[in-house]
Design brief:
This protein is an alpha+beta fold. The protein contains 7 helices and 5 strands. Among the domains are: about 90 residues, 2-Layer Sandwich (Alpha-Beta Plaits); about 60 residues. A hairpin with a 6-residue loop joins strand 2 and strand 3.
């Protein structure tokens, strides 16, 4: 028994050592795989494309392989002629495979400007920025990147799961033996197919954002884009604004006068009618004031004489 017990303990120690060695190897492999996965799935910082804006003159550089990166940028350029510069930028962007998605051009203001939004291939984003800057003097540049690799992987996994589910439902549908099972399976199959189409639409939209970067080009004739908070607010600016205000008031006054002029004859006729009616009313209501019995000098005068031999008021004979 003692010998058997010693052999058993030795076997246990050997087995424990083997298990420990296997766990160590597994942990080491797991750490290496985790490191590789972190290197692959971790946040990738692209030179000059830090979220929140890159300093002027920097670009997004080379995008990492195997990653789904959405690139958006804004470029501000000072030009001499906004219309000509906008046309030139359109042509240059077209040469790098991009297209115009939206535009807002204002030429009738004191500061002409143009805001053009382009979609360009992500791998040629830097060429598009250089083409836009060549239209004039590059004032500022901002670039943002967003890694959506996890979203792409999630959509692909969900889509694959739905495809498998749809295949199984089709199999069950072919084996259905009664109307109730057939109706239930068809309803579930329709729901799964609808969900799959929605996922595919999300995938297409995400693929489009990844494949084509969004570049907004701002063209202005001044050093500060129109509407910026850094506009000059000196004497000249105030004087110009005052002249504009006076012109506005003059325009408003002339507009009111022009609007009121057709009503002037009617207003004059109404005033004359009111004046005439007032005079007629005053004449018809005029009352003659009664004369006083007391003379103006205040004397009383003689008492009234008797009438027909009758005594007067105080009883004396006439």
């Amino acid at each position: 028994m003692p010998t058997r017990f010693c052999i058993t303990m030795s076997g246990v120690r050997t087995g424990a050592f083997a298990v420990g060695l296997m766990l160590s190897l597994f942990v080491a492999c797991g750490d290496d795989a985790g490191s590789e996965q972190s290197a692959t799935l971790g946040t990738v910082e692209v030179p000059g494309a830090v979220t929140g804006g890159a300093p002027p003159g920097e670009d997004v550089g080379d995008l990492p392989e195997g990653r789904a990166i959405i690139v958006t940028g804004v470029v501000s350029v000072r030009v001499d002629d906004v219309r000509q510069a906008a046309d030139a930028v359109r042509q240059q962007i077209r040469t790098v495979g991009g297209y115009l998605a939206a535009s807002d051009i204002a030429l009738d203001s004191d500061r002409p400007s143009a805001y053009l939004t382009f979609r360009v291939p992500a791998e040629r984003y830097d060429e598009a920025v250089a083409a836009a800057g060549a239209a004039g003097t590059l004032l500022s540049q901002r670039a943002n990147t967003e890694d959506v690799t996890a979203q792409v992987v999630d959509l692909e996994a969900r889509g694959a799961a739905l495809e498998i589910s749809i295949e199984r439902l089709n199999t069950f549908l072919s084996r259905a033996e009664n109307v109730e099972d057939l109706a239930r399976l068809e309803t579930e199959l329709t729901d799964r197919e609808t969900a799959l189409e929605q996922l595919r639409a999300q995938q297409r939209g995400l693929d489009d954002q990844v494949s084509y970067a969004t570049l907004e080009v701002q063209l202005t004739t001044s050093g500060v884009p129109a509407g910026s908070a850094d506009d000059d607010r000196g004497f000249t600016f105030g004087f110009d604004r005052g002249v504009d205000a006076v012109r506005g008031l003059a325009t408003a006054a002339t507009t009111v006068i022009g609007f009121s002029l057709p009503f002037a004859p009617v207003a004059v006729a109404l005033v004359l009618l009111l004046f005439a009616a007032r005079r007629i009313l005053r004449r018809s209501t005029r009352v003659v004031e009664p004369t006083s019995a007391t003379p103006p000098d205040g004397s009383v005068g003689d008492p009234p004489a008797a009438v027909d031999g009758r005594p007067d008021v105080d009883g004396s004979p006439a």
